[in-house]
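Reader question, answered in our methods column.
A reader sent in the components of a multi-part assembly and asked whether the whole thing could be modeled at once rather than chain by chain. We filled in our standard form and ran it. Here is what they sent:
COMPLEX SIZE: two components
ENTRIES:
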Amino acid sequence: MKPVRTRFAPSPTGYLHVGGIRTALFAWLVARQAGGEFVLRFEDTDKKREVEGSREHLIKSLHTLGLKHDEGPDIGGQFGPYVQSERLASYHKWAQMLIDAGKAYADPYTPEQVQQFREEAQKAKKPFLYRNHRPTDPPKWDGTMPLRFKSEPKDYQWHDAVMGDMHAGAEAIDDFILIKSDGYPTYNFAHIIDDREMQISHIIRGQEFIASQPNYLNLYEALEFEVPILATVPHILGPDGKKKLSKRDGAKDVLDYFREGYLQEAMLNFIASLGWNDGTEQEIFIAQELIEKFSLDRVQRAGAKFDESRLLWMNGTWIRGLNLGELYERSKDFWPESSRQASDDYKKQVLSLIQERLKYFAEIPQLTDFFFTDLPVDMQLIDGNKQLKKFEHAELKGLLEQAKASLEASDFSAADLAERLNVLLEQTGQKPGVLFSLIRIASTQAPSSPGLAETLAVLGQETSLRRIDATLQAL
RNA sequence: GGCCCCUUCGUCUAGUGGUCCAGGACGUCAGGUUCUCAUCCUGAAGAUCGCGGGUUCGACUCCCGCAGGGGUCACCA
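And here is the structure of the entire assembly that came back:
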């Protein structure tokens, strides 16, 4: 049994979205499960499409999700370099071997001529096959023309760890380009050489490569390479459920989710369970469980739609599961401006009150602002309240005066406050819906808040009474 | 158009011939938890298993056809 070595091989052409990161996650899980290596490789053979800074961005995305690679451009490894543009000598060496064996030849046509062949095929409603135009006496390859693979078309059957048994006819095989006229290899050629030289055991990649697989098999044969285990992962579809999730259609950068305060664990859990399950009814998985339970053959063959509401739920579940100290550490960048002067201890008290209503950290400001600053008295909160609007302001004022008197005598522990609120209920003969709403609105000026007694306890006596006074004056 | 892949509640899915007039989760709706929001709990609606044939005593599960969706047919990956 060969050691398991998986790879994630993005081209540095931008950021990583949820669909891309899932392929990386699966590769990482397979490696970790087997105690193998997870390799990062940059496929930068298209210099025109390269985006400045995307290499760092890609690495950061991977690491933020906890997908640490064992070998890669930034950390090296014994099979480097891990950047295709630095491996040109290798591609040319193998290309020369193919030429010598009569299995590769120079493409004498201009791009315009090839394009014309393509259009003719299209017009005839036939698939375009370059090999139908294969030159009988190609010139010697001097590096200024593309180098093409001289294919040997035939039927193929192969096994895919996700898709199962696959097959394709000889018509799927063509003379594809190995080396472009700029001297760089195509993906089709380079990845095969790299995977061989880096001793990659599993190729886990997106569905867009399925149609090329017969070509690759043909090339493996010509090169006399062993074919790695193949696993084709279906695309994640956008919310419209049609097209694959793509940057062009506004798919979010995974780092954007972290900027909004999604937890790494939730994201990992969500992405893994999009199109994969362990056969039980378990929904929440920690990374270690994913490593233990993941298997390629339980990955769905159909593409799954990206459902953000499920991610939101999952993130809330993970937030609720964190202990307070951990939650506080993670949420530090998300507190509102108004909290700047507040102590860590105070903020932790606030956090414990909102923990169960928090779905992602970017909500913290709107959930907590009133804990840090006196909001202006908004009579609409009272006049628009379905319980309170039935009362005259004078009546409400009387109720609030009674409440104030009781609160003035409280030690402001949550227990004492709860007790006093109960007594007030009896004394005034009012329903909680009336009395509590009134006090809550007066002391927070927020449309919603955590439980009344706890909120008052955290706000403290001085602040609570000051706000109640402000409301009394407005009534 | 050729080739290839896919098709179970709105969404993610369980399901490998009878235990499925289809189970779970998200979402939605209703009720409960002394106020709001959220959590939590309970309940409800929601899939004639894409359609049509067959095989079988019996099919979501096997076979054939069809339709729909997707991928691909680049000197992009």
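What stands out: Chain A has a mean pLDDT of 94. The radius of gyration of chain A is 32 Å.
Send us your own complexes using the same form.
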